[in-house]
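>> Question from a student workshop board

For tomorrow's exercise we were told to take the sequence and the ligand below, predict the bound structure, and bring the output to class. My setup keeps failing. Could a helper post the expected result so I can at least see what it should look like? The ligand is magnesium ion.
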Amino acid sequence: MTLTASGPQASQSSARQGVGVSCRGLVYIYRLEGYDVVALAGVDLDISPGESVALLGPSGSGKSTLLSVVAGLLTPSAGRLVVGDRDMTKASPAELAQMRATQVGVVLQGASRNLLPYLSAEQNVHFAQRGAGVQRGAAARRNGALPGPRDVLSLVGLTARGRMRVRPDQLSPGERQRLALAVALANRPGLLLADEPTSQLDSRARDEVIAALESVRRAGTTVIVVTHDPAVGMQMGRTVTIRDGRVGAEGRRGEDFAVVGRDGSIHLPHDVLDVFSPGTLVEVLLEPDGTARLVPVGQTPRTASGDLTAGNLTTGNIASGNPASGSFRGGIFTGGNLAGGAAPDLWG
Ligand code: ADP
Ligand code: MG
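>> Workshop helper replied:
Here is what the output should look like for this input. Compare the format with yours to find the bug.
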């Protein structure tokens, strides 16, 4: 299933080309009366056109804020943000609105927030197309610049007879969430941002939404989804874990990596933190082979490869003896194998 336009160019135009995102030291501060909340504390993140990414992380870590800043709904307090070829920190409110109408589709948390309750499913999609550029609604569709509402609804699997003509409150929760996706996709955006689209859905509805996201992804659209759902994370291929307003970890095809921050900091994986509690003094020793190890003060490091003495954490060889896992590679520290098997005993 691809998103095709219902016009003369229908056969050749699938989705708009994917839009990439680049964040450098991105900061967002909510200014409240009497105090500030730093929701994003320097996010460094690159997402390529057509890539699909799941944003994970504990509640309050800044995921929704990051989505809103990328969507242009919130203006960054500091740092750099480029979406497509536009520098979002320099864009005027009108340019941001235009961008949301054409290039970026947003699904806010809670499907109903994205829908007009008194319009049918089809009319909701139609309404979302009203502001798409100079060419409006029907004219744009005739030119093949925009897909017809039914084509958009079929992309998210809302094709059952009669479902297009009913209002959102007559749809099931899963259908409503897919309609919210369809509304966000109405103008064939190159970037889809969705905040917890599968939360509060039963497993069948959840699978329907996951299938809809998959067809959007396959159509070439860049997809960024905030989720707690491991199934969504797995489907996306790349996971980015936000912790305390920064990128704390990344997962690629099932492997987990910690990410070195611009200030040189690194979020240790939980199992390592269990060993090195906050406040522990460690020596960070760079090895000739390009790996590094953390040695707590008072512990004598051993140099034999793969040897693990109490408290001597040799990245690269912990427990697994496999130098390809658990090492610093290209500036990325993988925590994947640090505690693998033997480690707890050794520190216990
Ligand atoms: P997440 O989506 O990961 O749960 P949020 O981006 O919603 O995190 O929130 C990040 C931080 O910003 C939290 O400390 C939260 O309390 C705060 N925050 C979020 N929205 C607002 C707001 N509108 N006003 C003030 N603080 C907010
Ligand atoms: Mg949130």
